[in-house]
What we know:
By secondary structure, this protein is of the alpha/beta class. The protein has 16 helices and 28 strands.
Amino acid sequence: xxxxxxxxxxxxxxxxxxxxxxxxxxxxxxxxxxxxxxxxxxxxxxxxxxxxxxxxxxxxxxxxxxxxxxxxxxxxxxxxxxxxxxxxxxxxxxxxxxxxxxxxxxxxxxxxxxxxxxxxxxxxxxxxxxxxxxxxxxxxxxxxxxxxxxxxxxxxxxxxxxxxxxxxxxxxxxxxxxxxxxxxxxxxxxxxxxxxxxxxxxxxxxxxxxxxxxxxxxxxxxxxxxxxxxxxxxxxxxxxxxxxxxxxxxxxxxxxxxxxxxxxxxxxxxxxxxxxxxxxxxxxxxxxxxxxxxxxxxxxxxxxxxxxxxxxxxxxxxxxxxxxxxxxxxxxxxxxxxxxxxxxxxxxxxxxxxxxxxxxxxxxxxxxxxxxxxxxxxxxxxxxxxxxxxxxxxxxxxxxxxxxxxxxxxxxxxxxxxxxxxxxxxxxxxxxxxxxxxxxxxxxxxxxxxxxxxxxxxxxxxxxxxxxxxxxxxxxxxxxxxxxxxxxxxxxxxxxxxxxxxxxxxxxxxxxxxxxxxxxxxxxxxxxxxxxxxxxxxxxxxxxxxxxxxxxxxxxx
Length: 557
């Protein structure tokens, strides 16, 4: 018997035999549903045999036969009713288990998020791509038509999505382009570190989505529920269908606050803050200003995360303020890093380490935050060094800046576009999907091994635009992404270590060393971060002005 768990109350299985019924009972099942019609296969036991064996062991049974490939809406309703009537847990079976998994997916579609349904069936080894539109439609069969169709559909209206939309418009203004995003507000997220350091006001980092949408681009204000790449369709919440000729996927990533036990309940109070949220960055600055003594913890979760330098930036700006206020000697700064190095590109480590020393910050590598109790001012970290068994340590704090674990959005992880880790699976040079040739991805959601930063998206946008236009013209991709990313590390107020690098940690400086030497703290880099980059973001990057990011071209041989 090959029982595959869907949830605590249901498992599904390929065809079972009368002998398997005893195994089912031994595994704790109390009822069995047969979803395979008798006589479907030459070697198939009849339901009566299963029923007799089950009855002898005190198990209940039901016969709900479904013809392969013909699961009707009424069948799903009947299956859901059986799950409420029968004692659980229940084992349902058919030839492979697919019909049983499909029935469950449709039966619970009204009550469960689509991503949860797809995740549960995928974990059990069943692909629900063929009925995803019905799942989105609450388990009912929708009309098979497109509510809208565009030349290019872009999923995500963040830095990556709007930049690539504008870049495509600048190349081919006649294309019909749509951006799908449910958000009312577009945020300049790189500015939140500066908000947490008292440099910017939060309002400076936000504009309405409508005000930054590129001219001539349609904005579909909705969330995406699922993808049907075989049919060139995106399914929206409410089962509206948007068809495309070419698709670009860039919805960013998901901040998984719930993965740290107790964190959600205490964010924004009890000294628990994070610059990774617009509404919390001002609280960071309030805590820093008010702190005169005690312990301040700064955390960094396992990679990948958005802007790997951001956890340190919060520490540096806080330490600088305490240094200027003359209270640094009374504050115990702890940097809890789940990784094993201060920064992934070794050329920048000496400068950064000098500032850790300056602020007397203690570095704790292989420390991953797992739980927090805000009122008690305690945090727990799993310490997992390469040479020792994992252990848990408890640390008290007066202030803690938390960087949450980060994963791909749910609707991406369960989609046909994702790799085994849940990220959109692209060729790292062309950013084209490895399986679906009319799909591209950029920004934080794709799986190329580059830093997830706004600067990376700025470089990727014209590359995707160029390659998509090449495809329209019938050419192979000509623009190549070298993995460029940038992380302006705010080591003190007025100075920045401007880290710029590509694949494999290769240094990719934008300026000559006499202008900005990225391996050393620089006032010029601070000026760039504070005064030049914000207006550049709003007025150039989001409008398709590709200054200093001309795509590198494939050279003919």
